[in-house]
């Protein structure tokens, strides 16, 4: 049994943990029980600890306390979604416990795990059983017991994982929604995968292969020695992986588009994702088009002309493998954008879709952060937008319940501006809050007015079922249209007009004075106008407004006031 670890081992443990959860992120995503296409716990936790793994690769630490502190700092800024924020909190408490430690044994580990659990529970307003909090708490308790019997680092970590696995199995009985779906908690599962990755590193086991390299085709990369610069018609060797919105998505139109802007095209796919290799002069266009079919997970772009010239000149051929070194140099020379306060109030909003961005800009929002369902921004992303806002007090509108915690983590990180996070859970709530903003009022009055404004909004959404499910009494089939009211399942149908008509006749819309319909990027003008007609007929006393939101995932977002 390994008795203790030093900073170098801890750094490798974090890198190994990232590789472990990266290899299992999709199975963890699939544990999200709600059938809408927003299962992203695995992705959020992977991206969060990925920020720490990148930090561990870049820097050298002399003590395990310093390494843990660097990990906690990177996790905090890279935290995405509630699961990512809770993971960062677990490591924040962990790092405080061993701040002064040069090395770490089993007893130190047990104390650190306990500190981590305390930090996470303190930050969560209403801790629920059957979650990552339960798993981490019981794992830490077992670690403490093991440390009294055997103080080895390896033994204590192994015992914590074993207890965590038992606790994870019980989450299915602690949460009614999990029990109905027959799955365990996704966040708890992700946490244990991370701990197991750390233990595997201590035991000298190999890291899982990088997800981006798995299944690579032999011709995924050009043979630069076989071509000259003149022979290269399309300059950029572009490879990327996209997680599909729909399993049965027809990629033939996308294939035709890529053939029109490049050559050497290879597309490999399975039910859940597809990987593209293409040579093109406009890689940005390829990536933008790809996002109509799914969520971009990994991308690699290399300039073959530059590489061929370097090769011919006998120089080092720069590739994406050099990115970390390049980024480190850029970080040294590039100062972050920081706007000095020029006004009293400023506003930052999170949204996805050109139409929604335009609405927020028209309402006076200073900074926009791209994100929403399936693509939660990190704390650092939000912090950058706050720093670039020239105001004394900056209001943040997360517009998604899974982004609120990440937004709240910016409050202690912003030194010269006051940050006020309004807990808006939907884009329509954020828009209504901005409609009530008053630049001439006091902070208290402005906050109260905006809070009252979004509290009076009821939001409905129409999306599709990403998988078969028996949820809350509904037999749901993959591809069905799903209607949600205030994030609760309202109904399903295979006919879009039928589900819109049922939604329009709900109490929320029958009693509304104003109804705004934001239609998404996958909705045609004809479909949008049909939706407007349906609501106008069903809600004759309401004022109906139709707007192009351009949002992904959701065909319609509908606000009622």
Structural description of this entry:
With 561 residues, the chain is an alpha+beta fold. Helix content is 47%, strand content 19%. The chain has 21 helices and 18 strands. The strands form 5 sheets. A 6-stranded mixed β-sheet has the order 15-14-11-18-16-17, sandwiched between helices. Helix 1 packs antiparallel against helix 9 and helix 4 crosses helix 5. The longest helix has 23 residues. The protein starts with a strand and ends with a strand.
What secondary-structure arrangement, pairings included, does this model have?
Blueprint: E1 4-5, H1 7-29, H2 41-58, H3 64-78, H4 81-97, E2 104-105, H5 106-123, H6 132-149, H7 153-174, H8 176-181, H9 186-202, E3 236-244, H10 252-261, E4 262-269, E5 273-280, H11 283-290, E6 294-303, H12 304-312, H13 323-333, E7 343-351, H14 354-362, E8 367-370, H15 379-387, E9 391-397, H16 404-408, E10 418-421, H17 427-435, H18 443-455, E11 458-464, E12 469-471, E13 474-476, E14 481-485, E15 488-493, H19 496-504, H20 507-510, E16 514-519, H21 525-538, E17 543-548, E18 556-560
Parallel strand pairs: 7-8, 7-9, 9-10, 16-17
Antiparallel strand pairs: 1-2, 3-5, 3-6, 4-5, 11-14, 11-18, 12-13, 14-15, 16-18
Helix pairs in contact: 1-2, 1-3, 1-9, 2-3, 2-4, 3-4, 4-5, 5-6, 5-7, 6-7, 6-9, 7-9, 17-18, 19-21
């Amino acid at each position: 049994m390994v008795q203790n670890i030093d900073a170098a081992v801890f750094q490798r443990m974090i890198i190994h943990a990232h590789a472990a959860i990266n290899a299992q992120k999709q199975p963890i995503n699939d544990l999200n029980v709600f059938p809408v296409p927003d299962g992203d716990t695995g992705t959020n936790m992977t991206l969060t600890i990925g920020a720490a793994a990148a930090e561990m690769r870049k820097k050298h630490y002399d003590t395990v306390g310093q390494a843990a502190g660097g990990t906690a700092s990177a996790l905090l800024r890279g935290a995405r979604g509630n699961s990512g924020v809770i993971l960062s909190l677990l490591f924040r408490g962990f790092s405080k416990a061993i701040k002064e430690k040069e090395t770490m044994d089993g007893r130190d580990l047990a104390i650190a795990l306990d500190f981590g659990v305390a930090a996470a529970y303190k930050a969560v307003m209403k801790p629920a059983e059957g979650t990552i909090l339960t798993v981490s708490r019981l794992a830490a308790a077992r670690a403490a017991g093991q440390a009294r019997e055997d103080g080895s680092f390896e033994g204590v970590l192994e015992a914590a994982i074993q207890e965590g696995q038992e606790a994870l199995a019980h989450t299915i009985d602690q949460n009614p929604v999990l029990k109905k779906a027959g799955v365990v908690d996704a966040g708890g599962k992700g946490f244990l995968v991370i701990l197991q990755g750390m233990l595997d590193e201590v035991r000298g086991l190999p890291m899982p292969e990088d997800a981006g390299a798995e299944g690579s085709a032999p011709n995924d990369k050009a043979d630069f020695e076989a071509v000259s610069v003149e022979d290269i018609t399309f300059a950029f060797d572009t490879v990327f992986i996209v997680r599909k919105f729909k399993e049965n998505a027809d990629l033939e139109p996308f294939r035709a588009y890529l053939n029109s802007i490049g050559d050497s095209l290879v597309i490999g796919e399975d039910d859940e994702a597809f990987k593209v290799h293409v040579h093109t002069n406009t890689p940005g266009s390829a990536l933008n088009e790809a996002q109509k079919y799914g969520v971009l997970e990994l991308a690699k772009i290399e300039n073959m002309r530059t590489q061929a010239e370097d090769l011919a000149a006998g120089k080092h051929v720069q590739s994406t493998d050099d990115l970390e070194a390049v980024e480190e140099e850029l970080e040294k020379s590039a100062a972050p954008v920081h706007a000095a306060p020029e006004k009293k109030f400023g506003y930052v909003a999170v949204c996805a879709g050109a139409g929604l961005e335009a609405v927020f800009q028209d309402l006076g929002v200073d900074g926009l952060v791209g994100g929403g369902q399936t693509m939660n921004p990190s704390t650092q992303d939000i912090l950058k937008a706050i720093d670039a806002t020239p105001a004394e007090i900056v209001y943040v509108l997360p517009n998604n319940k899974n982004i609120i915690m990440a937004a709240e983590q910016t409050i202690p990180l912003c030194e010269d501006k006051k940050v006020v996070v309004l807990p808006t859970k939907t884009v329509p709530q954020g828009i209504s809050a901005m409609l009530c903003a008053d630049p001439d009022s006091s902070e208290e009055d402005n906050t109260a007015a905006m809070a009252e404004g979004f509290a009076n909004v009821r939001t409905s959404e129409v999306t599709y079922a990403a998988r078969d499910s028996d949820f809350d009494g509904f037999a749901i089939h993959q591809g069905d249209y799903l209607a949600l009211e205030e994030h609760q399942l309202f109904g399903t149908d295979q006919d879009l007009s039928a589900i819109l008509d049922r939604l329009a006749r709900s109490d929320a819309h029958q009693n509304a004075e104003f109804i705004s319909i934001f239609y998404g990027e996958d909705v045609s003008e004809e479909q949008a106008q049909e939706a407007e007609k349906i609501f106008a007929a069903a809600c004759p006393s309401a004022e109906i407004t139709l707007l192009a939101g351009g949002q992904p995932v959701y065909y319609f977002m509908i606000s009622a006031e």
